[in-house]
Amino acid sequence: MVPVPQGSFQIGSNPNEKGRKNDEGPQQKINISAFWMGAYEVTRDEFDAFYKDETTSENADVDAITRPSPQYVDLSWGMGKEGGYPVNSMSQLAALMYCRWLYHKTGIFYRLPTEAEWEYACRAGSTSTFYFGDDSTQLEKYAWFAANSEDKYHKVGQKLPNAWGLYDMMGNVMEWTIDHYDEKRYEKIAGATDPMVEATPAKYPKALRGGGFASRAADLRSACRIASTPDWNIRDPQIPKSKWWLTEAMWVGFRIVRPLKQPSEEEAEKFFKQYTGR
To answer: What torsion do the CA atoms of 70, 74, 75, 77 make, to the nearest 10 degrees?
Structure first.
């Protein structure tokens, strides 16, 4: 985990930024409390410790910690598993349940970052298009994306980090945030401290950041927002479709944060109940 200092920043993009989308504005100054963030995207090795934990259960009625159901096919699609590859193709629920499992194993509260925390950490004090500047021709030094990935994800930490020591914030796998996607979100958060979208039972759309190995350069910008869609699981043959896995989103993964100010046990359990229903 890498320390991310408290501070303020302008969320969103400048109206003149190349590749800018309407949902990236209006820019708003917001405040962020200190937290820790995973230096790398969560790897398959790390996720499998949860997925294969014999103290978890596929049945929510049997055990307090529910693990994902088996994949009906190998959703790594031959791109790599053990040895440092990012875990992929999971739903936001699966990522949150990993955080809940970690909390029960360690007593330390982890969760997905908010959109605001993610962008603040990605920028690492920068105000440019990318955290290293505005020149997209330099992207290959920092990210795996459509131009250099060979249409597959790669082991984490092989590209240059940002100024705060965070790797693969751009490209490799797109990263879940905890927020439900709201196109007009920035109109509501001027001057806010640690803005977080309230939990909702709606499965779509949820907000992701960072772009993935198949993304074009414009989608790797620090301010770029992505909304999940039902099409990401269209080929799932299960009825009902899986809550855990995404057949069409092989470029989706996640990283975790640990708030500096830890919630009480009651607050933590309430949080997971709100965001996972479990």
So the answer is: 170
The CATH number of the structural domain formed by 2-276 is 3.90.1580.10
- pLDDT digits 0-9 by tens, 63-78: 457 889 999 899 999 9
Tokens of 27: 């820019």
* Angstrom distances, CA of residue 192 to CA of 83, 124, 222, 224, 262: 40, 19, 20, 20, 20
Structure tokens at 224: 């770029």
Distance CA 160, CA 108 (A): 29
Tokens linked to 31:
């405040």
The answer to whether residues 87 and 51 touch, using CB atoms and an 8 Å cutoff, is no
Cis ω before 240 (30° cut-off from 0): yes
Spatial contact of 205 and 180, defined as CB atoms under 8 Å apart: yes
Distances (CA, A) of 180 to 10, 43, 169, 206, 226: 20, 24, 20, 4, 11
Q: What are phi and psi of 146, to 5 degrees?
A: -55, -35
Burial tier of 52 (Cβ tally within 10 Å: 0-12, 13-18, 19+): exposed
**H/E element, 97:** helix 92-106
Over residues 226-268, the pLDDT tens digits come to 999 999 999 998 889 999 999 999 999 999 999 999 999 999 9
